[in-house]
Design a protein that fits this description.
Number of strands: 0
Radius of gyration: 17 Å
Largest sheet: none
Low-confidence stretches: none
Order of helices and strands: HHHHHH
Number of helices: 6
Distance between the termini: 28 Å
Shape: elongated
Structural class: mainly alpha
Length: 92
Amino acid sequence: MMRKRLGDLLIEGGMITREQLARALKVQAKMGKRLGRVLVELGFVSEQGLVEALEFQLGISHVDLSITAIEPDVAALIPEAVAKRHQIIPIR
């Protein structure tokens, strides 16, 4: 199954307009940044709004590590080099 593009999700969710998406895509093409980052930098969407849209798009949820206890024995399940390379950390 093909997942929806971020811009389309944000438009459908009423978070941005087609015009804002078009402007952001032009900036993205010129600057080479990720679309979500461009949308935030232009002030079209908040960081939180972007996170929520990405969670929906990818079918995942984020974890606030500032309020989540990570058990050392669980963290040890993944070798440190692998965790760093993929920017992951097991929490459960």
